[in-house]
Amino acid sequence: MRAAIQNGLSEIDVRDVPAPGRDGALVRVVAAGVCGSDLHVYLHRTEPQPLPEGHEVAGEVVSLPDAYAGPIRIGDLVAVDTICHGRACGACGFCRAGQTFHCLERDKTAGWGGAFADLIQRHPAGLFRLPPGMSAEQGALVEPLAVGVHAIRRARMAPGATVVIVGAGTIGLMTLLAARALGADRVHVVARHAHQAAAARTFGAATAVQAEGADAVAWIRDLTGGVGADLVVEAVGRHAEPLELAWQLVRPQGSLAVLGIFPQPVMLNLMRPILREVSITFPICYGVIDGRHDFDVAIEIIASGRAGTQGMVTHRFPLEQAAAAFQTAADKSHGSLKVHIRP
């Protein structure tokens, strides 16, 4: 099969690689999104990559294990949880509780690469059927939306809450959609780039502004009567500044969900969240909450129209142009929100 493989720093080409075997479910990739974590690897990894990346994926089921007796059928259009359910052992305590990100025996089967390829293989438990009328493009948005859904549910957002999201990349925008669909009253977004602030307004933010530091604090304080938001979601990561900003925006005894990833240690002043008695969660990926998987919730709110994703995918490239897809996603002067590769 064909796959987009990174050869070195910001270098990608498309080549033939061995197709996966028949150890799990095999899915023909129809749409795969370039994620911020994919870009981090693309911009910093110098050694050649043995297998393709890619975890925001929807496709058509090609084969299933002989012993499989679940609801998925060959030919189904599915969203794929490639990280958690798709690799989990299914038997440890975390798996039995639906928290497969924390699986103690995660499957690291050789040859199970990612979605920037013609085919992807995972355990059938990671396949989520899309309802009639839902496209593969929408299906490839289920994974990033499930990240936002998980953050909102893990933080136990109350209906009617005032929410602030720091960051308006894909995950910030998806969290905006999730918060609105799950009952927030008003959602305000602090964006880094002007086109991201404009996108946040398009996707339903009550207000969105391109601001940092004291300007962002003054803006949110004005909007919340000087109190701050019930829930703040930090969706930037990497540096201390957006996190320090986030807990200046939350009200006393409010909640903060930290979605950003911090690959390196950062220095933080914890006195402000301590004195405000802020409840802080660190949601990552997705799992089962109150008996429902975050993928199922994400699929439902897209299919119902409660999370309008039209316009989220701004650029589409065939697999042969994977290098151009990554360049477009990395260079924000292109105005990209979500870039899709379509084998």
What is the top-level CATH class of the largest domain? Answer: Alpha Beta
Give the integer mean of the pLDDT values. 93
For the report, how would you describe the main beta sheet? Answer: 7 strands, mixed
Give the helix tally.
Answer: 11
The helix/strand class is: alpha/beta
Helix content: 25-40%
User: Helix and strand succession?
Assistant: EEEHEEHEEHHEHEHEHEHEHEEEHEHE
Strand content: 25-35%
Instruction: List the quaternary state of the chains.
Output: single chain
Quote the CATH topology of the largest domain.
Answer: Quinone Oxidoreductase, Chain A, domain 1
Total number of beta strands:
17
CATH level-four homologous superfamily name of the largest domain: Medium-chain alcohol dehydrogenases, catalytic domain
Account of the 3D structure:
This protein is of the alpha/beta class and 343 residues long. It has two domains: 2-141 and 312-342, Quinone Oxidoreductase, Chain A, domain 1 (Alpha-Beta Complex); 154-281, Rossmann fold, CATH 3.40.50. It has helices at 36-44, 93-96, 136-139, 142-154, 170-181, 194-202, 213-223, 240-249, 271-275, 294-303, 322-330; strands at 2-8, 11-16, 25-33, 56-63, 77-80, 119-122, 127-129, 162-166, 186-191, 207-210, 229-234, 250-258, 279-281, 288-289, 292-293, 313-318, 338-342. Helix 7 (213-223) packs parallel to helix 8.
